[in-house]
Each structure stands twice: as C-alpha cells, then as structure tokens.
Amino acid sequence: MLSAVLFVLAVGASVGVRAEDPPWQTWTDLHRLAELPTANRVLLRDSHCLSGCRFDRHSEGDWRYLRIEDGEGVIFDEPGAGAIVRIWMTTGDGVSQPLPDDVTMRVYLDGAEEPTVSLPLPAFFDGSTQPFMPPLVGDRHSSSGGNISYVPIPYREGCKITLVGADDQRLWYQFTYHRLTGPGSVSTFTGKEDLSQLAALLSAVGSDPWALQPTGASQTSSGDLTLEPGQSAVLSATTGPGSFTALRVDTDPAVWPEIELTLTFDGRITTSMPLSDFFAVGRGGLGSTRSLLAGVDGEGTLYSYFPMPFFGSAEVRLTRYEATTAESVPVAWQLRHRRHQPSSESGHFGASLGVDDETTAGLDIPLLHLDGRGRWVGLFADMGSVNTPSRQYLEGDERVYLDGSRHPDPHGTGTEDLFNGGFYFDQGSFSSPLHGSPYHLQPAGEDITAAYRWLLTDGVPFEAGIRAGLEGGPTSNLRLRVRTVTYHYTRPEPGLWLWDVLDLGDAASRSRHGWSVVGDWTLQALDSQFEGEPPEAMQGTGVYRPAGTSRFHLTAPEGTTRVRIRRRLDAGIGGQRADLLADDVQVASFPVVAENPYRRWREQDLDLPASAVARSGRLDFAVVALPNPDISSPSPIFSEFRYELWADVDPSLFANGFETGDLSGWSAWTP
After folding, report:
1. Spatial CA neighbour of 544 closest among 566, 564, 517
2. How far apart are the first and last CA of the chain?
3. Is residue 425 a part of any domain in this protein?
4. Cα(70)–Cα(321) distance, integer angstroms
5. Residue 557 domain-assigned?
6. Is residue 295 domain-resident?
7. What is the pLDDT of residue 436?
8. Is the pLDDT of residue 333 over 80?
9. 3-state DSSP call for residue 616?
10. Are 647 and 501 in contact (CB under 8 A)?
11. Which residues lie across from 177 on neighbouring strands?
12. Taking residues 408-422, what's their average pLDDT?
C-alpha cells in the first residue's frame, strides 16, 4: 500500500542554480538534472577496440595507451577545464578478479609534475582511502563484476592519468568526463572536498531523496480509483508553471504491464508506456529495481523521483489497455507538485520506449534518436538472447553520436560495462542507487538480463540531436530481444546550427575562407572508415603538415553568442594535438586522440568561451599544431580535412512558446 512518504516540503525557498556550481554538481539541487547545460560536453575515454574487434581491453601486446611518458602509460590526457565524474574498471579471465595491487594509477592535474593522486588500483574502489569511499565507490562484489567510482575529480587546466606496472595486465577501463569552455569558478581536486551531500543522497535509497533537497514548499495530491479494461483516468491536469517531484503508484504487480502512463507537458506528450517499463522494473516484479530515481519500494509501491518541470500546463494520465484481463483493478496514487517558475534552461522530462522481438544482426540496436536540444539521463534495458542460452549478447558496445557527428563519443566497451558491472554481472543481480541489474532469467533455451543506470553527474547533453545505439553481441553479430527505456530532458529547438564549412580538399573553399599555412603542407586523399557498426566508409582529401600554424576565417550569423568548431582529421596519425586561437588569442585546445590505423576518420568538437565569440560576422582562427608528445614517434604530422562552425542565433528569432506552453511558433515544432 501507499505509505505516507510524500509530504509537504517546507524547508525554505529553493536555492535555485548557483552560477558557480559546475554542471556535474546536480546533487545540490535535483532540479538541476532537468537543466540543459551549454558549453559543456560529456565524453568517454576508454579501452574499446579501435578496429571494431571484440577485445575491448588493454592487455599485453595490445596496449591502449595514448603514449608512454617517463615509463608511465598515459590513458587519459585532456587539456583545459573539466572533471572526471565516473571511473569504471575491471579485470579477469572469464570471471572478474580483484584489481592488481601492483598497478598504480596516477592523476596529474593542471600540468603539475607531481600527481595529485597516486594509488594502487584497488584503493580507488574498495573504500580504503579517502575520499574514495562508499557509497561513491564500489568494488566488483558490490557492483557485480565491475569497480566504480563517482568521486568527482575537477580540474582547471587539464588532467592526465597514467598507469604504472600495467603493461602486461588485462584491464578494461572507462573515464566519463566533462569538457568545459573555461574554468570559471571550478576548483581543482585536492582530495579534501566535502562530498557529504552527495554521499547522503546516494545513501537514502528507499526513501524520498527530495527530503534532503532545498526544494521549497510542495503539495501532494493522492487518490484511489478503479480501472476497467480500456478505461482512462487523469491523475492531474494543472495549469501554470511548476514541476512534479514525485509520482507513486500502488496496484497489483500482475497488471503493471497492462496500465499505460502518459505524461504531457506544455502540450507535448513526452511519455507513453506501461508502468512496468517506466518505473524500470520490467518483468522483475516485487523486490527488483530499488534505486535513487525510480523503482519499487519495500511495500510494493512504484515510485519516480525525477524532476518534471513545465511552464504552462501538465497532465498525468493512466490508461488500462483493452486487451487485458476482464477484471477491474484498484489503483492508489500520489503526486507531488511544486508551484514555482522552473529555470529557463529546463527541458521537458520524457521517457522513450523501444521494443524489438528480434533485432537485425550487423546493425546497432536503437536506444535513443532525438532532434533538438537535451540531456540523456537514464537507461533501463531488458535484453535477451534468441534461441540460445548464451549471454554473449552482453558483449555489445554502446555508441552515441551527438549533434550530427559521424564519430561516436561516448563509445563503450561492453553492455554490462555500460551499467557498471562486468563479466556478465558475475556476482549476481543487484540494485544500487545509480545502477544495477535487478534480475536474470533463463527461460527454456534463452537468457534474459535486465539493467539500469541513472546519469546523475554524467548526463549526456546535446545541442542539435542525439543518436544512441547498442551493438548486438561481440562484433554486432547477434540478434537480441530487447525492451529499452531511455530517460531524457529535451526542448524541441536546436541550441546550435551548422552555419559555415571549410573543406580543405576544395581549393575554392580554401580561398573563400582565406586559408593559409606557415610551412610545408601537402594535399592527400584518405579512403577509410569512421568507428561504429557497420563502419561508415568515406573518401576525402585534406591537408597534412608538420607542426606549425594554419589560418582561416568562418562566418557566424547575426546574434551569435555561442560557437562550436568541429574538426575532421585522420586519426591514423598518432600524437596530433593543437591550440586553437581566435584573433590570435588561445581559446581552446584540440586534445590528443588515440591513434587508429584501422578506422582513420575522426571528428573533434570544441565549444569556445563567450569571450572568443563575436556577435556577428567573420571569426578569424589559427590552428597551431604542436609537436608530438610521444618521444618515441618521429616527425610530428598534423591533419585537417574539414572545419565546421556551429553557432546559436538570437533567441528572439523564436517564439516564446516554451515558457508559455504554446509551441506552435517554434520553427522545429511539429504537433
């Protein structure tokens, strides 16, 4: 039954979003999860196989180092400001094993010669060393085959991570990180940060996390109803601005798949799916998912604590499907509503359902395909084999293409790795605050696994669209039965548009954009592929040159306040890095990318700080190619095939419909 866990919260006025809070610090106010950050990218550096093979690991004879520097293997090297917000790692051979304590991981921040952190690998995850303590970390026993840390490691002027003693070790690793346009008020990690508020939030699973938040006064409505097959009931139809912060539903678990939840915000239907999918319980029933943001509590009540902002209207509806059992079913519900003006940067909450009884081998399984601006914040998946008891369907990598890029980033190392586990969740089913695998079923001749993950500090923002998919098996070779739910916040209008392109292989384009270079250069053709399955092949011609400077200009539209530069390059050449100058002032740096001789096409995006952006007209750039930091490499070579300028426009060009609830004026809006 529904217990009295929802109550009027009156702990003072909302603190709102403080300008000095970095974008990963959503735990200070969960309303921030709904906000769509600008000039912030969330990316992944990991050990995935660059040729598309199944062995997504660092191992003897197959190092995944970016380079070796003073005897240390560099596995992460990012210039500028940002933060590591998630570290995942595992090792083993068929089953997970303890991380080797004779391997040291070192974290160098802001160009320092001495590491800020230097610890044996287990100490990052086993709870033995401050600040890497539970519930922010977990080892392979608590995370079922994986080792995970959510301790944020921010930096102002770059981060380098190395491994010592790992040359002959078999390791899988992932580093999720934010890339900012500038340091702002970011404070570099010292290890003495107060993370007690985040720890308290993650320790409160099973209770209402908003009780720990400065949310301001809220009101709870509740009711009891009976649903017949085909019958619909509106739980709430409200006007004016506000947000929902809790939804709880209590009914017979047998009918969870028979009742559809529909959420409509400001005239947009953003969610329409069965209760069992939306609350991430799938076919697990009672005692399955129990997490921070969604699941089923100890009394059998379904709950969601996602913030759901709206600006003009909102409706919550339950509908009983027609083709169900004949009996009527009682439903009890509670909905918490806070009347306030959400941040103007908030998106609409939504959840997207994907169902495929038999996927197509060779193609990524679609997870999410959205246009416009948004943030991806969660995933629940019920995955199964087809006519085989094998669990190799968990070998697939996730691939995320952001804002029209042809290069996937994030690009994962395995399905269970995506959900912070390892080796097919070899320590069994589990539920934790931000991730879990709530059930494993073995029907006759097949195998089924469920998993979820909430992206609290590592939600993936996008400006013009997102296309996320999951590889089917080790090399996209398997068919799966899948049922997935992706959770997101969106606005229908893009935040950035493609405005100008410099094609280095086209003489007219070089001339039109005033391209020039100091030093030698050659034009060369490249016939290769992008990463992904199936890999996208492309032919192109670009510039190859040694260290030096190229100059060009691109045109931004009137009213521009934000600019992104996208560079296309040949990743078959290792060690490439460069500084980007605007009006002869350094504004960003292209980081070193992993050398990939197999799939050589690559794209890199850099968002520029506001100080580098003109309100309109011509933007003058210089790309200063730097010497290769890998001392074992001979002559440094830099490649550039294409530069794209993405920019926003004056927001007055759009109707003010998002805030009013009338979206008919949006150029990208279709009813």
Report:
1. 517
2. 38
3. no
4. 65
5. yes
6. no
7. 98
8. yes
9. coil
10. no
11. 43, 84
12. 97
Cα separation, 243 vs 656, whole angstroms: 19
Between residues 635 and 102, which one has the greater pLDDT? 102
Pairwise CA distance, residues 369 & 498, whole Å: 19
Give the chain's count of helices (H) and strands (E). 5, 44
Maximal CA-CA distance, the chain: 81
pLDDT at 40: 95
Rounded-to-integer distance, Cα 659 and Cα 620, Å: 36
Tens-digit pLDDT profile for residues 168-190: 999 999 999 999 999 998 999 99
CA atoms within 13 A of residue 68's CA, in its CB half-sphere: 8
128's tokens:
């033995």
Segment 305-326 shows an average pLDDT of 93
Residue 13: which residues within 8 A CB-CB, separation 6 or more? 214, 216
Q: What is the 3-state secondary structure (H, E, C) of 229-260?
A: CCCEEEEEEEECCEEEEEEEEECCHHHHHHEE
Tokens at residue 181, please? 């346009």
* DSSP annotation of 200: H
Per-residue pLDDT of 534-592, as tens digits, reads 999 999 999 999 889 999 999 998 888 899 999 999 999 999 999 999 999 999 999 99
With 0-12 CB in 10 A as exposed, 13-18 as middle and 19+ as buried, what is 127? Answer: middle
- Return the DSSP state at 438: -
Alpha-carbon distance 489 to 372, whole Å? 11
Q: Which pair of structure tokens corresponds to residue 85?
A: 């917000």
By DSSP bridging, strand 153-155 and strand 147-149 are: unpaired
* Identity of the amino acid at 351: A
Asked, for residue 263, whether it belongs to a domain, the answer is no
**In terms of residue numbers, what domain contains 196?**
36-203
DSSP-assigned states of every residue in 588-634 = EEEPP----SSS-EEEEEEEPPGGG--SSEEEEEEEEEPPPS-TT--
Could you give the number of structural domains in the chain? Answer: 2
452 has which bridge partners?
380, 436
Q: Where are the alpha helices (DSSP H) in 266-408?
A: 275-278
Q: Using CB atoms within 10 Å of the CB of residue 527, give its burial: 0 to 12 exposed, 13 to 18 middle, 19+ buried.
A: exposed
Percent with pLDDT over 90 in the chain: 84
Q: What is the CATH classification number for the domain harbouring 133?
A: 2.60.120.1390
Around Cβ 128, how many Cβ atoms within 10 Å?
A: 14
Residue 204 token pair: 């409160």
Q: Which amino acid is at 312?
A: G
Q: Name the phi and psi angles at 654, rounded to 5.
A: -100, 155
Q: What are phi and psi of 43, to 5 degrees?
A: -130, 175
Using CB atoms within 10 Å of the CB of residue 286, give its burial: 0 to 12 exposed, 13 to 18 middle, 19+ buried: exposed
CB 288 within 8 A of CB 448: no
Q: What is the DSSP string of 498-523?
A: EEEEEETT-HHHHHHTT-EEES--EE
On whether the CB atoms of residues 480 and 385 are closer than 8 A, the answer is yes
Task: Give the Å distances, CA to CA, from 334 to 29, 278, 291, 337, 350.
Answer: 22, 16, 19, 10, 19
Burial of 560 (0-12, 13-18, 19+ CB in 10 A): buried
What does the alpha-carbon distance between residue 553 and residue 329 come to, in Å, rounded to a whole number? 66
Exposed e or buried b per residue across 297-328, where buried means at least 16 C-beta atoms within 10 angstroms of its C-beta: beeebbbbbbbbbbbbbbbbbbbbeeebeeee
Q: Would you say the pTM of this structure is higher than 0.90?
A: yes
Residue type, 57: R
DSSP string covering 157-195, please? S-EEEEEES-TT--BEEEEEEEEESS-TTPPPP-S----
**CATH code of residue 544:** 2.60.120.260
* Integer Cα distance of 52 and 531 in angstroms: 7
